[in-house]
Design brief:
The chain is mainly alpha-helical. The protein has a two-stranded antiparallel sheet. Strands 2-3 form a two-stranded antiparallel ribbon. It has a two-stranded antiparallel ribbon with strand order 5-6. α5 packs parallel to α6. The longest helix has 25 residues.
Amino acid sequence: KVPNLSLPAGVSDDAQRSRLSLLASLEEGFQPNAGGKVVETMRSATAQALSLMKPDAVKTFNLDEEDDKLRDAYGRSSFGQGCLLARRLIERGVPFAEVTLDGWDTHNGNFDRVKQLSGTLDTAFAALLTDLKQRGLLDSTVVLCMGEFGRTPKINGTAGRDHWPHSWCSVLAGGGIRGGQVVGKTSDDGQEVTERPTSVPDLIATICTAIGIDPR
């Protein structure tokens, strides 16, 4: 259940309209001294928040509309159901959706945690790509799977792996990007990139190009 999509207990539709009217009058008094952009940004944020509370938008977040077998395919974890929600948002024209799977900062107990996390990730990621493809959305949707850091090739004293910025990877799919290929290579011990290194600007430029934005 997504919080804050309905009015708080005790707040009626009339009360909400009164509050919004009060907010608008306060903004009118604030605008001359604050500059137009500040007020317009605040108004835009408010309007976007209110748009999520409309019945059609609220319905988007109702995963009970989906078949149980499909929900199971994504995995019943918050990440799995988040990926399913992301597909529903993309299907309805939302341009960007982000789903987070925390816990990869494995300074301790790396092996058990990565095994568990990978099971959650693999299940949901595979289901998302399959679902998008079956619905004809994969070619128009870029899917990026990435973390924030590589991990040390060597294991520390608490069976963990520490930060390693020298080599790490990301996965791209959809959006016309040719699949089934590995770009670049590390040394056998994973310490450094030995072939076709991809910089952060390169990755961002690739994503921009795939979604129709000139990276320059």
